[in-house]
Each structure stands twice: as structure tokens, then as C-alpha cells.
Write a structure and sequence with these properties.
Elements: E1 2-7, H1 9-15, E2 16-17, E3 20-24, E4 40-42, H2 47-57, H3 71-80, H4 83-96, E5 97-103, H5 105-109, H6 111-121, E6 128-133, E7 141-143, E8 145-147, E9 152-154, H7 167-178, E10 179-181, E11 189-195, E12 201-203, E13 218-223, E14 227-232, H8 242-251, E15 258-264, E16 270-275
Parallel strand pairs: 4-9, 8-10, 14-15
Antiparallel strand pairs: 1-6, 2-3, 3-13, 5-11, 6-14, 7-11, 12-13, 15-16
Helix pairs in contact: 2-3
Length: 278
Amino acid sequence: MRVYKYMSLTSFGKSVLGGQVFLKTSRPSEFNDPYEGKGVIVGDPSVAFAHEWVKAFSLEQIVEEGKSLDEDTLMRIVCKGNMVGRFGWFNFFDDLVRIVCFCSPDAVLRPESDLLMWSHYADSGRGVRLELELDDSTFSLKDIVYSEARPKLDLRLVAHCDPRTDPVFAKFLNDCILTKPRAWAYELEKRLVLSKDSDQLRYASPMDEYKGASECDLVLRLPGECLKAVSLGAKMDNLVNTQDLMKKVRNDGFGHVKFARAIFGDTYAYDYANLFDD
């Protein structure tokens, strides 16, 4: 599948190294949409669910370990205290997954989407746009659904508090990951959603190839042949010598990569001109 990723020039320098591509992953809480990953929870759970919840999420700040809870106290903690909605499930889910975001080819072909993506994610047109080919048999990318309504979970329908064993809870969390407000529809986003324990991810450190990463950063490592083309931003002039940049990338294991530059057109849309070595 052909996908695109806009980024700053600094991020590009960290992402294309030694014939490999390194893409930073994110938790849902790290995205710029304040509603990211947050659904609506309604209904009171069963007593059995409440017991399981307290045990699973170790609410020591509320419940002394080993203390026997009567039904009223238990339900007050889990339901009236809104522990499920306030921090339990979201923290669990936020720690469990890592996400890499891409744009579909449709976004690149739509001038209104392309222009905004350069502005919002590629340093106001001073960065780059990567064109990548990801193997469908290896990477399962999901389309974002743009909606006016937030995902909703009715706790009366949930049997277990672990989404890995409860299909209703699992669907809710999946919907939270893949649903965004319609205001973001211009992005035409596709997401790669992985468990933080996926063997497709690597921990990066300052000593690793992904320079400047913190010890806790997880990156998606792709073979260099996944990178097909790099487009330079229309406002990159005077920031870098184009020929030097192209030569550096090609000499670093990316001799096959094509380069282009976004240029200002006669309308409110970028045109693209292919770049060649001198």
C-alpha cells in the first residue's frame, strides 16, 4: 500500500539513516487532538465487573490491599467515583498501544489536504514528505472514521474489564483508536496500530541509529526499499543545500529514492517538480 508521511527536516534526519527508515510511534495521549482515544462511558457495571476492575487496576490509593468491600462501597468506588471513565481504562489502553500515522494517496491528490498537511506536520512547508510502500501482508493499516459522535461503551454489556478477553470492550477501544472528529477529515488518515510489545517495534536510545531518541521511545523500523520518494517543502529554500541533501541520502543506502520539490503554483495548491543530481 502506498502511503505518505509529512515531517520536519529535523525528524527526517532522524528517520532516514543507514539504508533504513525509522518512524517514531506515539501513544494516543500524545496526539494533538484532545479527544484522541477518549470515548463515552455509560451505565453501571455489574458487581462482578466492579470487583474485577478494582483487582485488575490495583486502585491502592482508594482501596487498601486485601480489604473486603461491601457492595455499596465497591459500586461507589467504581461507578459513582467514575474510576472507569476517569483514568482506569484510558491509562490501560494508552500504555498498551503505539500508533504510526500516515496519509492516504487521496490526501496527497487533494490540494486542500496536501496544503494543510505541509503546514501542520512539515514545519509550515519547510520539511519533507515521504512516499512509502508498505507490504499489505506485513502491515495492517486502518482507515480513520470521521464522525460527529464519540465511541460509546455501555458498561452493562461488558462482562470482563480486560479488553483482551471481552469483545465488547475490545470493540470500544478499537473504535476509540480509529474514530476522530470530522474537523480532521482533511487528513484522510491511515493508522498502523501495534501493541507496544510488537516485534515490529524497537526501543531507541541515544546510542541507537535513531539519534536523539530518549530511552523510552519506540520506533517502527522499515527496510530502506520501503521509501520510494522524498518531496522537499516549498519553503525549504536557504535552509539546506538541495544537492547536498540528495547526495547525503543517496549515499546512505537510498540510491533508489526519487526527489521532488513542492513549488508555488498559480492557484492555492502546490505543484511538484522532479529534482535530479547535478
